[in-house]
Amino acid sequence: MSLSIIHSGAVLGVRPLPVIVETHLSNGLPSFSIVGLPEAAVRESKERVRSALINSGFDFPMGRITVNLAPADMPKAGGRYDLAIALGILAASGQLSGAQLESYEFYGELALSGDLREVPGLLPMALQSPSENKRCLVVPLASAAQLACVKALNARYATSLVTVVDFLKGQGDLDPPPGNLFDEAQSLGGLPDFSELKGQIAARRALEVAVSGGHNILMEGPPGVGKTFMASCLPGIVPVLDDGEALEVAAVHSLSDRPRGPEEWYMPPLRSPHHSLSVPALLGGTAQLKPGEISLAHGGILFLDELPEFDRRVLESLREPLESGKIYLSRAQRKVAYPARFMLVAAMNPCPCGYWGQQTPACRCTPHQRQRYRGKLSGPLLDRIDLHIKLQADMPVNRAAINVQPDSSATILGRVGRARKIQRSRCGKLNAELEGVALDTFCGLAPESEKQLDQAVTRLNLSLRARNRVLRVARTLADLDESQPVELHHVLEALAYRLPPERG
Length: 504
Hints:
With 504 residues, this protein is of the alpha/beta class. The protein contains 21 helices and 16 strands. A five-stranded parallel β-sheet has the order 11-12-15-10-16. Strands 1-2-4-3 form a four-stranded mixed β-sheet.
């Protein structure tokens, strides 16, 4: 046979796409060409495949070798096609029968020795339903941890090119999918606990409300009051992901440089990028259109410390994803969509020196410096943040509050879990995601509460978006109290969280 067809695949965002690897051998001067819009890593597979075949004891055919990666108009990237190209050459040169190749899809990067190395982005292929793909996946054993969260996975794992060829010849077998590599009720031990934080009772309450409903929150306070520590405690009060959410999050992370390990699958992600990150690093959209920080935070928390220190363009680029829960990346040849439904947690100082409003030490900033610092946060961005809280130093002035034994993360997690269960049983989503008819239906107010809210909206000059966010927070407060109606005191507390930081 001088022509062979091998099945493989690519990903466009988190959407799997089939790729057919066609290999043709013909007479002529020895050459090896790969066509079908291969990027640099794919073009370089010629040398990896050649060395892997020779070092594995196979004959590398002398002649004209043409490999076509179809469809031809879709860019191909990475080393995932190495195994398919090598098998295509073996089948086209008669060293391997092509009878069984139709039943399999092949993925894997080849070392020069012929060993198989892990490749990213295999999880979207594994998540295809049997009606979409009835072929068995043949993947590197090093990718077992990446795929082990998929139940009833039709896959086999190989360590080298030789083991794959022996399997196809019926002279050996490949490893089946491993058993569970994770514990669904894994321990959260080692995480900071809210019981370690003394004082800041109001901030604790606001964070509990934010996590319960998936609301965005901004913490403002001087250095050392516990903003960063409280953010580090948040994973301990966020309920674990369910099976569907865990798979969706793992699929996004499988496309990154660091896929999630088995011990992380059910833990909501916490991303805390440095304030020097760029717009592509936040949104995604590098040359390979990999997911950015907002997509890697999908299903979890994006923590932005020192919020005004971020570039203005970076902050403004958050506005659309905060509303839609998705990010669309467009390039000349393709357009991809990534999920980006995350909870934004931000922290900032009241001024550049950090001590505006404090008696000691006194603030050293001029009004112009304060205005310029706070002016980095635009009104539309602040409008998308549900809760604004101001933190003050509790020590040593508020000794009574400090001596109160605070709730542990486990205790708070129990309350958050009950509130989220109420929300999901009511409408299948968290309160932060309520829109349109669902918002009117589940956040309806009594006439007196409606009147108070309208008066506050007029007095505070709040937008319609801000009003809706107040309603969502009030609904969450009612759920924490396990109250069916949204009472007036829920609305008033939600309005107290809505007050934005002063400017100037």
